[in-house]
Specification:
Layout lengths: L3 H17 L17 E7 L27 E7 L2 E9 L4 E12 L5 E8 L6 E8 L4 H10 L12 E9 L10 E8 L2 E7 H6 L19 E5 L6 H8 L14 E2 L5 H4 L61 E9 L1 H7 L2 H23 L1 E11 L23 H15 L6 E6 L6 E5 L20 E5 L4 H12 L17 E2 L2 E2 L29 H12 L17 H7 L30 E2 L4 E2 L25 E3 L10 E2 L25 E3 L2 E3 L1 H8 L18 E6 L2 E11 L5 E2 L3 E4 L2 E3 L3 H11 L1 H31 L26 E3 L5 E3 L5 H7 L28 E2 L7 E2 L32 H5 L7
Parallel strand pairs: 4-13, 11-15, 12-13, 12-14, 14-16
Antiparallel strand pairs: 1-2, 2-3, 3-6, 4-5, 6-7, 7-8, 8-9, 9-10, 15-16, 17-18, 19-20, 21-22, 23-24, 25-26, 27-28, 28-29, 30-31, 32-33
Helix pairs in contact: 6-7, 7-9, 13-14
Pfam family, one: Disintegrin
Organism: Dichomitus squalens
GO biological process, one term: membrane protein ectodomain proteolysis
Length: 922
């Protein structure tokens, strides 16, 4: 501990430095207390067998070594409390093709690229999770084993947790684990650091570390936000007069509001209010009735404040992603930052830890994770002059402020162009006065630069080192996302909320001052771990453009698109030898630090005499030769659905995997082939959810998530969704198939068949009704056909009118003659005898009378009686005496000759022929 003389001497030094700095530099307030946490256990959850990856050898699932993909429970004690921290991997922190470039200062004082290394995901053990009460932890452990998402109601949490593990430790050797991060318990944040990093950022008045290196808990320190001195305590220790204005100097601040681009809507379109629509009502189309006093005020004064008021969007999340997204970032560390941490390795580790903690905050708030795609880390020795490839890497000086570094860094970022990074962040060891960070507002996904020095703008920010620098990083990235500062003391919301004439985000619609309790506070304070409801509405409304301005979100990618991103937008331009993946131009790649007998790990080329490498190929022997064709390189997963693949004997590559078609039946109870495995949805529930007693798949047939979903054994009406994805080839939705976590729809026949069989309570009644309708339609058609056949009319005799019309003008009796084979004239049945006689030349044409009333059944002397039409109620025609009128009498009607009438001329008209002797009688 400090002696009394040491404390007095330190106070004098602090007071002198305080006045010389003119209150511009006010470091974080010191700690009253700290402790050393004791790690009781790291309980690794059971692992599930994952499909093998060609060219990669995986560790056994029962290995006691902590993997980067493991979920586990960290149990530790501190401050006389025991904390149960349940953690799972942060899968999206490191880009699959991430790299780190290391620079050093050459003999000529210039920065030189010394090496480029891949950032292997398996080398980064970054996790996030929750702190769980002791009595709930066993149940939660079973849920974690099954991978339940989301958590069932009733299982509550004490707070969040973000931990990066550096060393798992060894209980047998007495070596405790080493990790860093933060977690919260009932709203109080606990910070865990290594002893070395604590000493690097230690305040002069911070407590000394009392344990020696031999103590098992000496490697770590822990403190709470409640352990930080209050302002009054700090002022009393410094001996300052509490009533003095200097005693109330600002703490660590952000220089955001002093940048014109961040406050002037004319320079930054994202914060420009959309002009109101023109005043053109239907009754005043030309504006004659519109008073000049009703025109809206024109906001065209540079620096006159932002036009957007975000108080109307407090707490609204509309516009933010509804599913998980990632923005991959580039991070650079200058020489001063690396110097704070002693080496490039320590600086790299600190950056990854900070991003893991900040990423979890964005993930839980906006569903956007922060990932790293590239690091540029410079050696602690600063160059004598700035270089063209890294002009921002210069030593601290009064001539280069934090604002200058941001402008220089933005120009450098614009020259990189489209490199796959949505944002770039500079970590520096050079704060300017009380400013510890600065950023350009609403520049997400901006990969180009604009403007001129000293205000070159791009998607960039600068943060400086400190005890809780992850908070500064999260704050500045919030500006990149479009968040303005929360309102502070002295703000006013009479005409839009402002602090010192700069727009701000109020606590609520009725309260302006947010009291520095959120991450976007302009002054750094303890306990800032969340975004305020106004900041959430601010960022989300800009993403959707609802507030008028709009941020670019094209660099936010879906986690499932990582494979396509790596191939379509390569961010690694140099050959990444040492990442354990055989890439184009490489013979082999055993990984960094490997002592392969067949492959040179430094060049990724075969050693002399080797034709393959067993660490990279499955059909290679330990003697660096091809394996024989009798060697199995890929065993069969299932005897029914898969076959084993054999090496060819002439290649180190295992042949492609061949298995039975997906959906092929392989047993009862719904078992079917899926990627060579005989399984079912219920069987996958049994395998994954055994710790919770899950055994039956959830009967939600329209589920297209391709995640294992099981029926809750305690509530059959509830489904428990697990983190595990269904095996490729498993059914999903109606007739679909899961492929790489996505439900690929099938044909319409498969869709209909699946829908029908899974909805029998609907399909059977509908089928019955449709069948009855079809039967009724067929019956109606048959009835129509039968009725049409019955009602078909019979052939009837020709109806002849009683009084025929006048004969043709060109008529001769001879025309009525029909010749037969014997040349004997034949007349029609209705031709009178007198006419027939006249036509035969036996009578002279003349006027004759004829009475033809005959009795029933009689015929004429020359043959059958001619047909006649009766009158008086019956219009039947009687021919040849076969029929006879039952009543009345009629007149003979001549029938036209069958032979066509040729050129004959009628010289006379015998009216008796047509009218008969009784013409005119009634």
């Amino acid at each position: 501990m400090y002696s009394h003389h040491h404390i007095c001497w330190l106070l004098v030094v602090l007071l002198a430095s305080f006045h010389s700095a003119s209150a511009l530099s006010a470091p974080a307030r010191p700690l009253r207390r700290l402790s050393h946490p004791s790690t009781l256990s790291i309980d690794i959850l059971p692992r599930r067998q994952s499909p093998p990856i060609l060219g990669k050898r995986s560790l056994p699932i029962d290995s006691p070594v902590l993997h980067h993909t493991d979920s586990f429970r960290l149990t530790l004690t501190a401050f006389d409390e025991t904390f149960y921290i349940h953690l799972r991997p942060n899968d999206h922190l490191i880009h699959p093709a991430a790299r780190v470039n290391y620079y050093k200062t050459g003999p000529d004082g210039q920065s030189v690229l010394t090496r480029t290394e891949p950032i292997l995901r398996e080398s980064v053990k970054a996790y996030w999770g929750e702190v769980i009460p002791a009595h709930v932890s066993p149940d939660r452990l079973r849920e974690d084993t099954a991978g339940v998402i989301p958590r069932p109601s009733g299982i509550y949490e004490l707070g969040w947790a973000r931990i990066t593990v550096y060393d798992q430790g060894d209980a047998d050797a007495g070596r405790p684990p080493v990790f860093e991060g933060a977690f919260s318990v009932n709203g109080v944040t606990h910070h865990v650091q290594t002893k070395a990093n604590y000493l690097r950022n230690k305040h002069a008045l911070d407590p000394h570390i009392e344990l020696d290196d031999a103590h098992p808990d000496a490697n770590l320190v822990i403190w709470r936000d409640s352990d930080v001195m209050s302002k009054h305590e700090h002022e009393r220790i410094l001996g300052l007069d509490v009533s003095s204005p200097k005693a109330h100097g600002h703490g660590e601040t952000c220089g955001h509001d002093r940048m014109d681009f961040n406050t002037d809507p004319l320079q930054n379109e994202a914060i420009r209010k959309v002009p109101p629509p023109p005043y053109t009502p239907w009754y005043d189309a030309f504006g004659f009735l519109h008073s000049a006093t009703n025109f809206s005020k024109r906001d065209d004064v540079a620096g006159g404040g932002m036009g957007i008021d975000f108080s109307g969007y407090i707490g609204q999340t509309a516009g933010c992603p509804t599913s998980q997204k990632i923005v991959y970032m580039g991070v650079a560390a200058d020489c001063e930052y690396t110097s704070k941490y002693g080496s490039t390795g320590n600086a790299t580790r600190a950056i990854i830890t900070n991003w893991n903690t900040a990423s979890a905050l964005y993930k839980t708030t906006f569903q956007v994770s922060l990932g790293i795609v590239e690091l540029q880390v410079h050696e602690p020795e600063c160059p004598s002059t700035a270089t063209s490839d890294a002009p921002w890497n210069v030593a601290c000086s009064e001539s280069v402020t934090l604002n200058d570094r941001l402008s220089i860094f933005s120009g450098w970022r614009g020259q990189k162009g489209n490199d796959g990074a949505g944002l770039w962040h500079l970590m520096s060891g050079c704060p300017t006065g009380s400013e510890v960070g600065i950023a350009w507002l609403a520049t997400l996904c901006q990969q180009t630069s604009s403007g001129s020095s000293p205000s070159i703008v791009s998607g960039t920010a600068v943060s400086t080192s400190g005890r809780t620098e992850w908070q500064v990083i999260a704050h500045e990235i919030g500006h990149n996302f479009g968040a303005i500062h929360d309102c502070a003391d002295g703000c006013s919301c009479s005409n839009g909320c402002e602090t010192d004439s700069v727009n701000c985000c109020p606590l609520s619609t009725t309260t302006c001052d947010a009291n520095s309790q959120y991450i976007m506070s302009p002054v750094a304070e303890t306990g800032e771990m969340q975004f305020s409801p106004c900041s959430i509405g601010n960022i989300c409304s800009l993403m959707s453009g609802a507030a008028g301005g709009h941020t670019n979100t094209t660099c936010l990618i879906d986690p499932n698109a990582m494979a396509s991103l790596t191939t379509s937008k390569p961010v690694i331009t140099l050959q990444m030898c040492g990442n354990g993946i055989v890439e184009s131009g490489e013979d082999c790649d055993p990984g960094l630090g490997s002592n392969s007998t067949c492959c040179d790990a430094s060049t990724c080329k075969f050693k002399k005499g080797a034709v393959c490498d067993p660490d990279s190929s499955q059909c290679c022997t330990d003697s660096c030769t091809f394996a024989p064709s009798t060697q199995v390189c890929r065993p069969a997963k299932d005897a029914t659905c898969d076959t084993a693949e054999m090496c060819t004997g002439s290649s180190a590559t295992c042949p492609p995997d061949v298995f039975a078609s997906n959906g092929k039946s392989c047993g009862s109870n719904g078992l079917a082939c899926a990627s060579g495995q005989c399984t079912s949805l219920s069987q996958q529930c049994q395998l994954v959810g055994a710790s919770m007693g899950l055994s039956k798949a959830c009967p939600s047939n329209d589920d297209k998530s391709c995640q294992v979903s099981c029926q809750d054994p305690n509530n059959s009406n509830q489904c428990v969704v697990l983190q595990s994805a269904l095996i490729d080839g498993s059914p999903c939705g109606y007739g679909g198939t899961c492929i790489s976590g996505n439900c690929k729809p099938g044909s319409w026949q498969n869709f209909f068949k699946s829908w029908y069989t899974h909805n029998l309570q609907i399909s059977i009644p509908v089928t019955v009704i449709v069948g009855l309708i079809v039967l009724l339609i067929l019956y109606a058609i048959a009835r129509c056909i039968m009725r049409s056949r019955r009602s078909k009319p019979a052939r009837t005799a020709q109806r002849i009118p009683s009084y025929p019309g006048p004969p043709p003008m060109n008529f001769a009796p001879s025309a009525m003659v029909r010749q037969n084979s014997s040349s004997t004239p034949m007349y029609g049945p209705n031709v009178p005898v007198s006419v027939a006689a006249a036509g035969g030349g036996q009578q002279r044409p003349g006027r004759t009378s004829h009475s033809s009333r005959s009795s029933a059944g009689s015929g004429g002397p020359a043959g059958p009686a001619p047909a006649r039409r009766t009158s008086g109620g019956s219009n039947s025609v009687v021919s040849g005496g076969a029929r006879q009128s039952r009543q009345g009498s009629g007149h003979y009607a001549p029938a036209f000759p069958i032979e066509p009438i040729r050129n004959s001329r009628m010289d006379w008209v015998d009216d008796t022929v047509y009218n008969g002797p009784a013409h005119g009688r009634r």
